[in-house]
Write a structure and sequence with these properties.
35% helix, four-stranded antiparallel beta sheet, Rossmann fold, single chain, 2 domains, alpha/beta
Length: 313
Amino acid sequence: MTEPIIRVENLTKRYKKADRNAVDGISLSVLPGELFALLGPNGAGKTTTVAILTTTLAPTSGEIWIAGHSLATDSSAVRRNVGIIFQNPSLDLNLTAEENVRLHAILYGLHPFRPTFASMPRAYQAQVRELAGVLGIEAEIFKPVKTFSGGMKRKLEIIRGLIHRPKVLFLDEPTTGLDPVSRRNLWEYLRQVQAASETTIFLTTHYLEEAEAADTVCILNQGKVVAYGTPDEVKSNLIENYLVIDALDQDRLRTELAGLAIPFTQTPEAGFRIVLTDRSPQAIIKSIDTPLSVLKTHMPTLEDAYLSILEQK
């Protein structure tokens, strides 16, 4: 059985003078190459969790292993194996965009120090140009960061986070401030990185459609895990799939459904609602002879499940 690349056991974090834990005994595991989505409202503990896993914040208690290394005893090895794109910018505004990336590459020991971009190895130059092209800032890569908009700074942080080809890439709200085209380009590139190098992606996001493609979803609320599983599992555990039908001759349809032993509920506004359990929509529709005037299927989204979870807490 494949060993998790991230394993968290009973992680807790309480800030000084706080009346409750920011992270309250959470456990999770992430397999190599997975896209893992950590979701939750503001204040749920997402950013605190990411800060702990990336060694920028000390936990109160709990055990963490990343890429086979214990965060408690070998945090340097953990840092070498992860990349991080923070929710808030962490760039040096006095450097150019490329100088920020080059400094990162040198600090990670990818290349020895070189004073200019032209003196850096060709592999580095090609990678910087490739990433800048994917994110649409190739014309600005040699300009000072202090001239960048918020969206451009986000793109630069993404380039910097990928430059050392980490085994685990932490993305804390990575597409905040990006336009739709840049968001799409970023995710296309991230999927390429995942497929080519089996990079594990640990994502927090408020764009729930980004989490629909995740292998595993973990939803936090008030520091606790309130849902965990694949997107389909999270949805099926909380939200029903159902079929809505109606007919001009409602009496005939009602009698026919009863005769077919198809359970339903009926409201004047919504017509006949049939929960899909062991029967497919096609099988139900095929069995009905009454002419239908309304036919709709409701397949829940991750957003439906997410909102349902938070309403219950």
